[in-house]
Amino acid sequence: MLMIKLFLKRLLVKNKALIIQEGHYVHDFMQVLMKPRNTGVKWNREEITQLKSHFKHLSLYLPVLIIFVMPFGAFLLPMIAEVLDRRKEKRPH
Predict the structure, then answer these.
(1) Total-model pTM
(2) Pairing with 3, which of 9, 44, 67, 73 sits 20 to 30 Å away (CA)?
(3) DSSP code of residue 87
(4) Which of 10-24, 40-54, 77-91 has the lowest mean pLDDT?
């Protein structure tokens, strides 16, 4: 499992700029994705469904993102939020 996580993280870091660029075209994608990192509040079911829909769209540009749409892909959402976070330090809650 650790090898898979490291592999995914490496792919995400490699394609970070593309994901962020395309994510800006998708309404509220970055805002919803960063919600737990910015506020400390977890995603609700509606937000997870919304994120999966966004990842389905973004996977047309970057096929590796389809893993977030698959069953249990929501468990990997914190990892992509961590990789895409542009801040140097975590916000205090």
Answers:
(1) 0.74
(2) 44
(3) -
(4) 77-91
Tally the C-alpha atoms within 13 A of residue 60's C-alpha that lie toward its C-beta.
8
Ramachandran bin of 20, using left for φ above 0, alpha for ψ from -120 to 50, beta for the remaining angles:
alpha
Q: CA 37 to CA 71: how far, in whole Å?
A: 23
Locate 55 and state its tokens: 């990842």
Backbone angles phi, psi at 39, to 5 degrees: -115, -20
Tens of pLDDT along 7-45? Answer: 888 988 888 888 888 877 777 888 899 999 889 999 999
